[in-house]
Amino acid sequence: MTLSTPRQLEGKVALITGASSGIGRAAAIVLAQRGARIVAAARRQSELDDVVAEITAQGGIASSIVVDVTREADIIAMVQFAVDTYGQLDIAFNNAGTEGVFAPLIEQDNARFDLVFEPNVRGVFNCMKYEAKVMLEQGFGSIINNASMGGVIGFENAALYIGTKHAVVGMTKTASIEWFKHGVRVNALCPGLIETPFHHRGIWPSVEAQQAFAASTPASRFGTAEEMATVVAFLGSEDASYVSGHALLADGGYSVA
Ligand SMILES: NC(=O)c1ccc[n+]([C@@H]2O[C@H](COP(=O)([O-])OP(=O)(O)OC[C@H]3O[C@@H](n4cnc5c(N)ncnc54)[C@H](OP(=O)(O)O)[C@@H]3O)[C@@H](O)[C@H]2O)c1
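== Glucose 1-dehydrogenase ==
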């Protein structure tokens, strides 16, 4: 067994959705720093260009593709692009997602349901399916789905978002049972409160409420996107070769407090 090195992902190809911002952007940079060749995917080309430029400036290798994960055809093209560009697919981080609209369940409606379930559940489902077709054929691969600590516990006013993240954890566990025996591991990352643009789009009633929530975690703070990226690097690496079907909480200890 070889121990992890700073270049623990040397030779691997990593596909990352939602790589234009926040956790996905940090994952693209950290995985590239550890040796992976990156395919960065999201809807905003200019932000993807910035990520690719940053990786390239650091001596890494990256390409980008514009993708809307609510469109199955985009996902098929994205996976094909990764294989065409680099010849294989070792790691897929299905991270793209939205918080939708936070409100009491009784005030939610079908339009808001679709707004959050389309990218967070159908998008992850289709990403997993088409990535796995490549990985099962290869006989190896690691899929990491970005769920949330809200994939294992509930939150007031967030029934739709929480529902999507429980669905992601459920699909992760089931796919792991189906695919690990064929060499493909599947895990979920379950972040707690992470400092990204996600938190500046109105999910908090006030700045004070946001700060109080962060202070109530045992870590007494938000996590950083880089702290999520290093967990993704671990799950994607051979260091996690016996880890599959796991919902890995990286939440500053919040969910057990
Ligand atoms: N921040 C937190 O506290 C936290 C906690 C738990 C879980 N998470 C999860 O972490 C993931 C990333 O969130 P973040 O905090 O990094 O927020 P973020 O900075 O807003 O990033 C969201 C990313 O998803 C992409 N995206 C959204 N809809 C998409 C679509 N239809 N097709 C393709 N890409 C799409 C966005 O890119 P474009 O707009 O360019 O498409 C962006 O890159 C989400 O799944 C979120 O639920 C976040």
